[in-house]
Known about the structure:
It is built from 3 helices and 8 strands; from the N terminus they run E-E-E-E-H-H-E-E-E-E-H. It is an alpha+beta fold.
Amino acid sequence: MRHGKPPAILVRKGGSWALVAVQVGDRVRLQHVLNHWGVDVPSKEEVDRAYQLALQYQDTYGLKKIMPPKTQHGAYSFYLEDCDSNWWEFQYVEEDSHDKMYERGEVVPAS
């Protein structure tokens, strides 16, 4: 499903989340790696495979940075910065890690 009008678009395909994209032209601000898209893959081997493919196609797709895989925050993952300065994390997490996090309920930091 698609909503919005130029210069923005709101897209949702099932599930409970949506993607909002806004065309900003020359006003693009560089993003930090902590502001990234996450892609879950089914195994550590798939993380390594994605990493090798990123290195192989870095010049073809103009990937700016590719960080080596490592284990952190409960995931085995690597980050890459694409040609438009978007950051991506390809990660493997244990099968039920996300479920366990949401089973705890909403966590709101104390103010």
